[in-house]
Amino acid sequence: MSNLIRMVYVSTTTNPVKPGNRGVQKDIGRILMQARKNNPKDEIGGVLYFSNNYFFQCLEGEQAAVNRLYKTIADDPRHENVQSVSVKRIHTRQFANWSMKYVALEDDVSRLLKESGYASFTPYEFDDDMIDKMLGLFTNAVDQTSRPDQNYNATIARNEKPGLFSRLFNGQQAA
Ligand SMILES: Cc1cc2nc3c(=O)[nH]c(=O)nc-3n(C[C@H](O)[C@H](O)[C@H](O)COP(=O)(O)O)c2cc1C
Question: Which CATH fold topology does 4-174 show?
Fold first, then answer.
């Protein structure tokens, strides 16, 4: 039985960009390296977005693994005011092909914010509907920093239907 959840939290950088200092941009590079190294080991995937000094991250995976990672992340001094804004049980992952996708979509997000009545990117105020719309944008967006590196939904299908897969596999071998 899979116990998949999708958690979304928001936080504020402790390292805003200042003139002559890449600040949080450097942090984001390191965070993505850590996420892409660690998350596959725990079958965690998701997406990270940063704007207006706020992080917005979605973590998908087994409940225990996601909760464990969230605790580690919440203690990270590179951000503060870490607040979970949505936790949902899911059957399939929205970011099944990513250990951690990173998107930079200023124009698309600005358009969505305007349409939805938000004056700026203030994710602590987002309701479930707005969170789903943000994640919808991110699903189709291109990640300029990386390529899809996982196939989690296939792993789940294999675990749930071992009989079918082995029959197909054996059939192929025999043909
Ligand atoms: C906004 C933010 C998002 C992060 N996301 C992840 C993540 O998805 N996976 C991860 O392993 N670490 C993530 N981290 C880093 C963790 O807090 C922690 O530094 C890291 O897991 C330690 O990994 P290491 O023991 O391999 O150095 C994130 C940190 C921040 C500030």
Answer: Alpha-Beta Plaits (3.30.70)
